[in-house]
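Hi L., both proteins are below.
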Amino acid sequence: MPRDLDLRHVISPAVRDLIELANLGDFDRTREQITRLRGCARPINLVGHTTTRDHTTGETIRSYSTSDEPTGRLLTPCGNRRSSRCPACSRTYAADTYHLVRAGLCGGKNVPETVRTHPRVFLTLTAPSFGPVHNRTTDKDGKSRACRCGTHHPEGAPELGTPLTPKAYDYTGAVLWNAHAGALWARFTLNLRRALAAHFRLTQKDMKQLLRVSFAKVAEYQQRGLVHFHAVVRFDGPDGHNSAPPAWAGVDDLRTAIATVIKSTTLTVASDTVGDQEIKWGKKFRADEITALGDGELTDAAVAGYVAKYATKSAEDSGTVDRSLICRTCSGRGTVGGRVKDLCPDCDGTRQAESLRDLPVHRHVRQMIRTAWDLGGLPEFADLKLCKWAHMLGFRGHFSTKSRAYSTTLGALRDVRRAWRLAQADAARVRAGHPVPAPNTVLVTESSWAYLASGYRPGEELLANQTRHDINQARDDKERAKTEGEVWQ
């Protein structure tokens, strides 16, 4: 920055920082970095270098160092899947999830199109009742019915999902159900394979050689703070999506086995303090056939869109907070120091980063958080780490999982993007007159990177806001053009 540049008269810190950025040199490169992030809310700041050489000749093919950047650092997307944390990165995650699920439904991404002919259902599994809650129901004609409290609640009413009688609600059972939901799903898939073997009168060994069950699932929070699962469950041959299942295995067989296993799959959680708890599925579930070519409501594209939408949701959609409540200074121990332990100066021994009483959440959500925190202090539940996951209302599983042979992977999709970016860089080298390696050249890459910080400088935040505005404007224009096109048709 020029020495004679005096910015004391600029009141706004963001504008002052933007002027400083513009005077660092190569401002276009600074803007390029921000634009490439596509509006990421809190990018990762890295420092380091990478060099790619030809293994045979030792010639440097590509080299990069953050010391050549105007700001001396590289900004990379945070990659957070939660829309509440980063809408931009969550859209990328949703798009990847969409393509992953869609590939397992109608092919693509190295999955053959014949997968469309495999029997498959869209399964929804819910949690059981832990007490009556306020809700909105309809009769068989779609007419609104009054809640048990006698009120016709409007859509979005804050009391929806909350207990009718909070003192009688089983908060302990609800939190422990959330904490074991992932294990219950694993037990369900194991029992489903066993049930199908018995249904077809096969041994489990013979079934593995004839039939495979593949799935992709996501978790979603209900208004009452309990997770439920949406999954694509599919019949395959022994080689997964690359082989067709036997002709005698159909959708009806799959739905029958699912209905049987849902009723019989349980887990027992032993506790001398709160009593033994039986973890099981709720009575309400759906297993609808997925159609291939638009003959019904649940088409390939529709199901993939549903799953991708659910994949970016999180606990905040049920009214909780999006951050851990464990004190970072003492890591939830309540004390600091070596041999002589002192109370943590930040939490005063409470182990909490924030007082549970002061959290800006509904009373029902606060009670679930408090219950998770209290259960986390019991020795028999130490392995559940409920204090760490109290802000998630006890749920500690992955929001999105799939079986190995369902389709492609998120890592493979990211590798494709990375390869595309390298191809673009090589094309730029060709345009600049620099040589590029032959297709069969063995390359050696040496890298060294270190984390510096997270987030933008104030001036960079202004540029990021402009990028977000441009992206949203382009999306709105595209939707408007699509709508107008449908009207004209």
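That was the first. Here is the second:
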Amino acid sequence: MPRSTWRTWSGTVHCTPAQWLVPTSEDEIIEAVAVAGRNGLPVRPAGTGHSFNRLVPTGGVLLDLTAYTGVVGVDRAAGEVTVRAGTRIGALCAALDRHGLALANIGTLAYQTVAGALSTGNHGTGLAHPPLSGQVRRVRLVTADGRARTVGPGDDPDLWGAVRTALGTLGVLTTVTFACVPQFRLGLRLRDESFDGFTDRLSAWAGESAHGSANWLPWGDRVTVRSVDPTDGPATPRAGWRRYAGALDEVGCGLVGQAGRLGGGAVPRLAAGFGALWPASPYADASHRVFTFPQPVRFLAMEHALPLEVTGDALRALRPVLRRLGTYSPYSVLVRVGAGDDVPLSPAYGRPTGYVNLTVPRQAGQIEILRAAEHVLRAHGGRPHWGKAHTATVETLAARYPRWRDFQRVRAHLDPAGMFANEYTDRVLGPVAAPAPAVTG
């Protein structure tokens, strides 16, 4: 029986497409786009559904790329790997590891497809590292005319920039070629700091570790700082079990979130009890196993990319807002950093960036936490993560991206009829070739 309802990983967004296709080759993707064009149907590509908004839903053709997977080739001399778009990041990293190679930086989620991660501006952490788009050397793209083309830095500079973070609006990515580095190990260390001390020196802290991040529980005044740096030392014995501390923490947050439905004020006490059961400890392991950890519990998340120099101010402004709500999320606020990017729709475009991420259980009462935080982060120049929860519209977003018009010109040229648009892309980008919105704050 054909499948009828597609759902996101979190289960909070779904759609019933007219056609749900699962291609296994580029030729099948080309054919699907060509047929949709002849029939006047919109097309949306889909991966593992790790977006927390309506990025994918369509009533037209849903191209599910999760069966279009695998490494096409590894060029050790050039330091490159070419991979099919539906391949999960974890599978790519494991394949590279077998070749003695690695990606220089990735985010915490191994289950996301490479195309989904690239299309939404996904990133890891580290002031020397731009988002995932900065590691891309070439892509293959099937456009609305049913043609596949290779796009690289030697091509049209506007197209090369636009295609690396495009929300699936320029066409369907089929393969991505990434730059690789030699295999390396990372060592992880933890320490606590006061909230005030951390936020006062956040810009300086950002450069202290190759891949630093921090976690803050808003009812407390301490921040857990996570330093992750390359190491020549051996992997820690049974290191694989150490990374599961993060997964156990996720399970604890899910359980506390359910118990917290009885009263948001109980969350801090319950969270402290669960956290004491599996304290994290330092360890060293292969880079991709330190960057990522299993995330078994489903949740909702929102993230904004801020100018690095105001990220500490934003956290200080966020503290009283979250405390006044009378309810808490069991998940900590996650702070990461990154280099600026030259991709027009990258949330890190043109500036060193501080990323502030808030996660909540999938409960209506917890969503108010995200709404309250969004106002604060937006007021500090935040650009929302394209794949996470937010309420921003084109009227707000256009003014925050200096090369907004460049992207819109590329989009209008490649997809003049809006084949790859949906309700979400119309909300955040506007209809194809629509007049530029008035600039607002």
